[in-house]
Amino acid sequence: MICVTVLYANTPGERFNHDYYVQTHMPLCFERLKTHGMIRYEVDRGLFGRDPAAEAPYVCMGRLYFTTLEDFQSGMSAHGPEIVADIPNYTNIAPALQVSETS
Question: Residue 41 belongs to what domain range?
Answer without folding.
Answer: 2-101
